[in-house]
Write a structure and sequence with these properties.
By secondary structure, the protein is mainly alpha-helical. Helices cover 75% and strands 0% of the residues. It has 6 helices and no strands. Helix 1 packs across helix 2. The chain is elongated.
């Protein structure tokens, strides 16, 4: 999902879409989407036996390394540690 595609769908410029989106949600479109992806990853880690890489890819991340870094930053622990704590 790109900012350009979202703004085009709403018939506004990317700058205007981003400004209005942040005004209503408190987050930029990029950060909001990343939060949704991380929440999806959290649910998959809790409810499935997928590998960490599979969870990252199924949540919309293109790189396992980037997924692990983003998850660790948001949840203060790595995805593998998070999964082990739940087990």
């Amino acid at each position: 999902i790109s900012l350009y595609d979202l703004s085009r769908y709403c018939y506004v410029s990317p700058f205007h879409f981003s400004r209005v989106f942040k005004k209503f949600t408190g987050y930029s479109p990029y950060h909001y989407l990343q939060m949704l992806r991380l929440k999806n990853a959290e649910i998959l880690l809790k409810t499935t036996r997928f590998t960490i890489s599979d969870v990252g890819f199924k949540s919309g991340f293109n790189s396992p390394d980037y997924f692990c870094a983003a998850f660790t930053k948001a949840y203060k622990m790595s995805p593998s540690r998070y999964k082990n704590v739940l087990a």
